[in-house]
Design brief:
61% strand; three-stranded antiparallel sheet; 2 domains; 10 strands; mainly beta; Immunoglobulin-like
Amino acid sequence: MTCVAATIAFLVLVAGGASTGLASAAGSISEGRSLNASIIGPSMVKPNVTCLYQADVTGGTPPYEYTWSAPGGGSSSSTFDYSNVGSGASYNITLFVTDAADVQASDQLHVTTSSSAPVCPS
């Protein structure tokens, strides 16, 4: 959550349209900017291929730090090229994101390999 200091000036009018002068007030506004992270990429892939997964991050305070985790691999960028295993296997790919305010979000995608899966992006 970000707090923003603000000064607000306003004109006070009385009945008949006469101005009583300028007044001001100061305070803080609380701004909720939750951090959300999701994985963009296929959940069913052909065996023994490399697929591209992307982080979709909204909210929070940039810049973001990325950590990907999967069996036998990981990455620290906004994209993740992952080489999967043989047919019939299943595994999880996990994304962790931390923003400049040290707020964290994560997402996990369950992936299954199948020879009938469409060709995935790489």
